[in-house]
Write a structure and sequence with these properties.
Elements: E1 5-8, H1 14-27, E2 31-35, H2 41-52, E3 57-61, H3 66-74, E4 79-81, H4 87-95, E5 99-101, E6 103-104, H5 107-116, E7 121-123, H6 126-138, E8 147-150, H7 158-164, E9 168-171, H8 182-200
Parallel strand pairs: 1-2, 1-9, 2-3, 3-4, 4-5, 6-7, 7-8, 8-9
Helix pairs in contact: 1-2, 1-8, 3-4, 6-7, 7-8
Enzyme class: lyase
GO molecular function: 2-dehydro-3-deoxy-6-phosphogalactonate aldolase activity
Organism: Jannaschia rubra
């Protein structure tokens, strides 16, 4: 069973990447991003895509330029996440057939990103908008728009965010900090998945 959860592995190294990816998939998290300000991010993405690209959607975060999109695609990544809205990044992403998740905070940015072809929206920083801000935006966003809350959503607040209209979440330090062993990544990911399943009213299945 897949969940709308993106694991953000900021700071991971290529040597850690395959074991971390396996731990996340086993726990039930199958969307994984390596921010490009991590050590050798393209090597990590390539290693994970080669090993688990058939079982997980793997890609990059903190993607700020169209040239970076091409580099991620060459490494085997299929997910492009940004902290901001950039029409050129979205266009390059969609041209290559990858998923595009730009960061937005306002309705103006949200509609611009959707017009540019975004797959879904990353509400960022989620702590600034809060569930109340998302609820207000939901009143005007097109039906079916996917919105993931990132930077402010946590397992203990999943239910509140879901009630406000969040479709999913991006989790950083809740599931990974640099140097965290794969066994602890697995434990953190399992807790996150169980919290999501409770909040979403789903049976807990790995």
């Amino acid at each position: 069973m897949t969940r709308p959860l993106i694991a953000i592995l900021r700071g991971i190294t290529p040597a850690e990447s395959i074991a971390a990816c396996a731990a996340l998939i086993e726990a039930g998290i199958t969307m994984i991003e390596v921010p490009l300000n991590s050590p050798e991010p393209l090597s990590s993405i390539s290693a994970m895509a080669d090993a688990y690209g058939d079982r997980a959607l793997i890609g990059a975060g903190t993607v700020l330029a169209a040239s970076e999109v091409h580099s991620v695609a060459e490494a085997g990544g299929r997910l492009i996440v940004s902290p901001n809205f950039d029409a050129e990044v979205i266009a390059a992403t969609r041209t290559l057939g990858l998923q595009s998740w730009p960061g937005v905070l306002t309705p103006t940015e949200a509609f611009a990103a959707l017009r540019a072809g975004a797959t879904g929206l990353k509400l960022f920083p989620g702590s600034l908008a809060g569930p109340s801000g998302l609820r207000a935006m939901r009143a005007v966003l097109p039906v079916g728009t996917q919105v993931y809350a990132v930077g402010g959503a946590a397992p203990e607040t999943f239910a509140e965010w879901l009630e406000a209209g969040a479709d999913g979440f991006g989790l950083g330090t809740a599931c990974y900090v640099p140097g965290l062993p794969a066994s602890e990544i697995a434990s953190c990911a399992t807790r996150i998945v169980e919290a999501y399943d409770r909040a979403a009213g789903r049976g807990i299945m790995a």
